[in-house]
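## tool: complex_structure
## caller: assistant
## args:
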Amino acid sequence: MAKRFQLLQGNEACVEGALAAGMKFYAGYPITPSTEIAERSAIRLPQVGGKFIQMEDEIAGIAAALGASVAGLKSMTATSGPGFSLKQENIGYACIAEIPLVVVDVQRSGPSTGLPTSPSQGDYMQAKWGTHGDHPVIAISPASVQETYNLAVRCFNLAEKYRTPVIFLMDEIIGHLREGCELIPAEELEIVNRGDHNVTGMPYAVSEGNYVPEFACFGEGEHYNVTGLFHDVDGFPTNNNEIARNAEQRLMDKIDMNLDDILDWEEVGTEDADVAILCYGGTTRAAKGAIEQAEAEGLKVGLFRPITVWPFPDKAVEELSKKVKHIVVAEHNYGQMLGEVKRVAKDNCTVDFIGKIDGTTLTPADILNKVKEVL
Amino acid sequence: MPSALIEKSFRTKRLPHIWCPGCGHGILMRDVAQAIENCGLDPDKVVIVSGIGCSSRAAGYMNYNTLHTTHGRAIAFATGVKLANPDLHVIVITGDGDCTAIGGNHLIHACRRNIDLTVVVFNNNIYGMTGGQYSPTTPHGEKGTTAPYGNIDYNFDIPKLAEAAGATYTARGTAYHAPQMIKLIEAGIKNKGFSLIEGLSVCPTYYGRKNKKGSAIKMYNWQKDNCVDVKKAEKMTAEELEGKIIIGEMSHSEKPEYTDMYKEIIKKCGGDK
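## result:
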């Protein structure tokens, strides 16, 4: 029996959380700073009767993981910047074919090979728009090792529940951070498994008021077709514009109509704050340091941290913009979530930005100085 | 009236297929179904995985578990299916471009692993779906819409490539020689390891027209007159074999299969308990 409390790296906690969620398959390709996820999966999966395979490239990594998911196993692949770019086409395939999958992206500095492998949050927009065409996205970003464990479970649950790829948008800071972590056993967690299988011959049909189809795994006797072409409820390709429109609409609706379940954020001390720092993932650490220091100096500064970073929590941020005078967005990039915040906040408050694009990290002092600037 | 095989193994509601008149893909698709039937496989346990292109539309017509994937990635998807559930019989239907150009890396690495997949390449020597561009199997000197002055690339010998990369069964058949093609696919299915069977197809619409090969019938007759069985070829001189295509079983060897070896790892780790 593994020790319940362990000193773990974020990447290791990701694997342990995935295993608690029921991960039985991992396929990937080595890339820093995500490699420890592959390494620990290689050790741990066969110990629980699962399968690990190192594929010949990033594209094959996600393809094999999708194949395994179609065959019935909870699957994951992990990568970083350049590899995340390579996986994009098959993320779109998973969206339209509705195949559950967890794709971990431990963000590093880019574009291209960039500054290997300095911290970055430069893939925020890519997580949403990386694959072509309109498609729904769920992306989750952890800010500590413990949260990495817990949210890995949530990623699998959301992937299974909504039959969609879920992006676990980590960053180098959290991936390589070492902290105490409680390995909460599966029995004490809410674990979502695939729903009851239908045998109607209509694998993509949904019941009234529902948006997510349920269908059997390959090998269970229902001979259905999985394709990246737009398809009717029977799974077969079609060029019928109305069917295509309805299929696309349902893909979007299955996320949009379940926002209450999918969205998640941390909000601290914003009720009477003059300034709210809005951040996510690794930048949260510096933001919390800045807030402590601000409090000591008598400033009223709150924190708003999206945990589900896609879909963006529009309503919550809109409300935030009505509560505070200023929002300071802190990201390790040139300003990506910033655009979302401005879109939602409109003229309710000022929206400013502090970022880093040189491979170094934001410090509490950097953020505090920005807060003082806007006050 | 469709034959009993068509009734059983195909989604007859999805027919007729999209392929052009004279195309060899329909014959090769039927050969795959006949081989599955001859091997006595449980259809519930058969998975057909395909990529993108003319060949890969086959999956949608066949009455098994069918996975129509992204361009070039069929073998990588199939690797995941097979490793996840080794009880499934995983057959990949792919084309010359899908398998040896955009998917070439996945092909050689699956060969190297000797994972128990049966890959049937419908080789029409051209990119048909996009309208006739030259592929890795367009013969040197011949034309495509992107090789208007003649192709200066040299073409792949697919079974030879697969054998060199580690496949334990390789063969080549044709759309014309259907009985032999069925036997070659059967042998590939029965081989416990990575099997590659190249099926020479006929594309009268693009490859044929672009290279003045004449009618579809003329192209099938060309296969009849110019393909030599590997056993007969052994007794022929190099001069006699000039311009001929050798068909039949090209290689067959034995070595441990990937998913079997992984089962041993699971046992060693105590994961089977």
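## assistant note: The longest strand of chain A covers residues 101-107. The two ends of chain A are 53 Å apart (CA to CA). Handing back to user.
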